[in-house]
Structures are given as C-alpha cells and as structure tokens.
Amino acid sequence: MPKTMIEPFRIKSVEPIRMTTRAERERLLEAARLNVFQLRAEDVLIDWLTDSGTGAMSARQWGAIMEGDESYAGARSFFRLEKVIQDITGMDYFVPTHQGRAAEKVLFTAVCKKGDLVPSNCHFDTTRANLEYVGVQALDCVIAEGLEPATLHPFKGNIDLERVEALLRKEGARIPFGMITVTNNTGGGQPVAMANIRAYAALLKKYGKPLVMDVCRFAENAMFIKMRESGYENTSVRAIAQEMFSYADAATMSAKKDGMVNIGGFIVLRSDEWLDEVRNDLIMMEGFPTYGGMAGRDLEALAVGLEEGLDEDYLRYRLRTAEYLGEKLDAAGVGFVKPTGGHAVYIDAKTVLPDMPVAHYPAWALCNALYLEGGIRGVEVGSMMFGRRLDDGTETFHSMELVRLAFPRRMYTQSHFDYAAEVIADVKQKAASIRGVKITKQPKFLRHFTVQCTWA
Ligand SMILES: *Cc1c(COP(=O)(O)O)cnc(C)c1O
Q1: What is the DSSP letter of 60?
Q2: Domain range for residue 343?
Q3: Which residues, in sequence order, are CB contacts of 309 under 8 Å at separation 6+?
Q4: Ligand 1 atom 6: residue of nearest CA
Q5: What CATH number has the domain bearing residue 68?
C-alpha cells in the first residue's frame, strides 16, 4: 500500500487563496494591533482559526440545496433530515436549531434550574456559558491524563467515573443529568472510549439520571474507537456511532462540525418527557418546530452531510491529516499535545520559545509569527485567552501556552500541511528573533477576540 495520505475527493470548484509578501503581512498585522482575529480573512493564506462551519460542501450537498422545501410548517426537508437523524441516533425526536449553542440554550432553559450541577468530561465554552447563565454549576471531570499534554493515552477524553460516582452520591439531588462531549474539544479534540461511555451511562442510570451527549464530533470519535478500541476493528463507523448514541437519552449537536455544513444544529431526544418544554422554548428562541433555526435548504445539506461525515475513507484522511502534521512537528523538535486529536493540532509554544517570559505571551507571539512567516492563522489557547488582568492591575497567567491549528473539513490538501510544517520549522529556527507582545487595550470578557497589543 502506498503511504501517502490521499484526499478522498477531487476538486470541482475552487476558491483562490492569496499569497502576500512579508512586508504586507507586517503592515496588516500591525493594523490589526497584533491580533490575528482582527485580520481580514482574504489576507490569510491558510486559515486554521477553527473547524467550525468552515468546511467545503460536496457536489451532492449543493445539489440537495436546490431541493430545499422552504415551507413554514411541515416542510419535506424536515422529514428527510429527521429520518437520517433517527437512523443514526436511534432517537425519535429531532429538534432543529441554527447552531450548537442554540441547541444548548433551548435544552438547558427547558430542563435545568438554578443551583443544579452538571458534570461532563469537559464542557465546551458555549456549553458552560449556557449552563452558568441559568445558574447551573458546570463541572469538568476528565481523567487526569486528559490534562497532561505530553502523556500518551488512546482516550484522553474519558470521564473520571470514580469522581462522577462520588458526585452522584454526595450531590445527586442537584444533578438533573450527566453530559459528555465527543470528542472532547476543550481537551484537544481527544476521543472518549465506548467502554467509558457505556460505564458512564450505566452509572448515571443507577442513580436515575439521564445522559446528554454533546455530539459535535461524533463521527471523528467513532472513527477513533474503530482505530483504537479492541473489539471494534471490524465494526462500521456508522454502527459504532449508533452504539454510542444508544447509551444517551438526549444529544446536542453543532452541525458546523461533523454535520459537514456551514450552519446548523439540533437537539435529539429519546423520550417525549422534555419535548413539550423544549418545543415551547424553541418556538420562542429559534422558530417553528419543523425548521427551528434553519432554512429548508440547510436541512437538506445537513441530511447529506451527516451521511458523508460517516464515510470511512473521509474519516481516515481526516484523522490522518492531524497525525501527519504531528509527525512533521516531531521531526522539527516542536512540542504539541499528544496524541493529536481529531480536528486540530495544539502546538506547545514553550517548546518553540522557551526563553520568552510568559508576561510577553509566548503562544500569542507564536501565533503572530506563523502569520508573519507564512500567512497561517491559528488561535492562541494560553494566557491571552485564560489569563486575567485583576483590579489591582496585576496579570494572571494560564498553565499552558498553546497555539491551536484547527482544520476545516475537506478543504486543505497534503501540500498545505507540508507548507505549514515548513513554516513552523522555520519559525522555530528563528525563535531568537520572535517578539512577544504587551497589551495596550483589553475588554473585560473574552479579551482574546478584541485585545489590542504592541510589541514587547
Ligand atoms: C462548536 C461546539 C459547540 C457550539 O456549537 P456552535 O455551533 O459553535 O454554536 C458546542 N460544543 C462543542 C464541543 C463544540 O465544539
């Protein structure tokens, strides 16, 4: 077998990306106050800011879009998507929303109350924010290995079952349901084992609690199970996904991930116990139950996308891209969170800029350097994102300084990854000349999006 990873698609429609000169990029980054979020996308060559809603749709999806039924109530497109979702999830009640966070808001508003506590492996930031907004404590219970970047473990997204059992015993009255995120985005896109999902569901059941899965990357998680968990080598990814869903009582999904579409999301429920409340909230917040937050054409594109996202050739290529970049980084002596996850590679900036003081924001500096050197846009996951300026003017810093490169689906080819690996290796060679930053202006919340900086 040839070893080259092969993109299991050919290109029918292209979108040019623009080469800029180094001098241009210096000017553009300074105009953006040294914050890549403030760049225009057309000034970026390779945009790895996020994998959310950024992927390429297939010819079949674009064809399906023309079949969208835009009827307000009872559209054909709703029933087509409902059938696909019922088949994959084994659950009867499908509730469309415009994206993942809307699914969370609708579900939590319907089901949670102030003072509740919801455990998960790691809550994604919108999940946490939506829970906290209704007064719920969102608790992360990922296994210890999930927090150690250099520790190898096949399922670093697993939830710590002992910790959850202790919680159920002590705080059971406050827990309306347990959650689990597949793959664990906040923990680096790391998968959760089938055995862990099964045991977690059984534990919750013992205490009479439902399991709600955050299934944004369920197909990537299923492929990891096929590749890493014994007993699943010869099971189809679709059957693995169906088994994962069989342990859940409900799920929330951002279709912008494994739904292979640019916008969309849903809630799916096994029983009708929460259905009336959920649909009432849906009508208030999103729309009528047969379109929710989506146009008929978006429902069609998602019906095709969910099927395509389970294609094993595609998933093999998908997981291989991250692993491939990881191998190149290893060869260049650049550290990263291991093993690589499904949708992203997280570079450990301290291995590239070991001498830069944390007060100069090394991961932010590396992010800027990747843009200056090669027109690549990633996102800092370090002290700019998680640090704080306290009221007395002192700064707090995050324990890790990471740069996340997240890969849009079906968009970039092997040569883009080769190019990026070269740029990263060049940046490491030039580490001594990379400049850190200091903050000149920052908002109170989510400062990384709009912070303004100058060279340190
Ligand atoms: C993206 C994401 C969400 C939120 O979805 P949006 O479509 O961005 O609103 C929730 N959970 C996880 C794990 C995600 O990755």
Answers
A1: H
A2: 22-51+311-455
A3: 219, 258, 259, 260, 315, 409
A4: 100
A5: 3.40.640.10
Q: What phi and psi values does residue 46 have, to the nearest 5 degrees?
A: -120, 115
- Could you identify the residue written with the tokens 């670093």? 156
What is the distance in A from the centroid of ligand 1 to the CA of 258? 11
Q: Other CB atoms closer than 10 Å to residue 132's CB: what's the count?
A: 13
Determine whether the shortest distance from the Cβ of 186 to ligand 1 is under 6 A. no
Cα 190 to ligand 1 centroid, rounded to whole Å: 15
Residue nearest ligand 1's atom 12 by CA: 124
Domain-located, residue 13: no
Q: Residue-wise over 252-264: b if at least 16 C-beta within 10 A, else e?
A: bbbbbbbbbbbbb
Amino acid letter, 188:
G
Pairing state between β 265-269 and 93-97: antiparallel
User: Closest ligand 1 atom, CA of 102?
Assistant: 9
**For strand 46-47 and strand 388-389, is the pairing parallel, antiparallel, or unpaired?**
unpaired
**Does 361 map to a domain?**
yes
pLDDT value of position 185: 86
Q: Is the CB of 348 under 6 A from ligand 1?
A: no
Number of the ligand 1 atom closest to the C-alpha atom of 53: 7
Going by C-alpha positions, the residue among 371, 304, 424 that lies closest to residue 58 is 304
Q: How open is the CA angle 258-326-235, to the nearest 5 degrees?
A: 45
Residues 199 and 68 in one domain: yes
Q: What is the pLDDT of residues 19-54, one digit of tens each?
A: 999 999 999 999 999 999 999 999 999 999 999 999
Are 214 and 182 in contact by the 8 Å Cβ rule? The answer is yes
- Mean local confidence (pLDDT), 223-229: 98
Q: Does residue 212 sit in the same domain as residue 247? A: yes
Q: Kindly give the residue spans of alpha helices, DSSP state H, lying in 375-405.
A: 383-386
What's residue 121's pLDDT? 97
Q: Which residue's alpha carbon is nearest to atom 3 within ligand 1?
A: 100
Q: Which of 328, 313, 305 is nearest to 416 (CA)?
A: 328
285 and 316 assigned to the same domain: no
Q: Is residue 385 part of a domain?
A: yes
Give 249 Cα–ligand 1 centroid separation in angstroms: 19
Q: Is the CB of 185 under 6 A from ligand 1?
A: yes
Report yes or no on 17 lying in a domain: no
Question: At which residue do the structure tokens 């800011």 appear?
Answer: 49
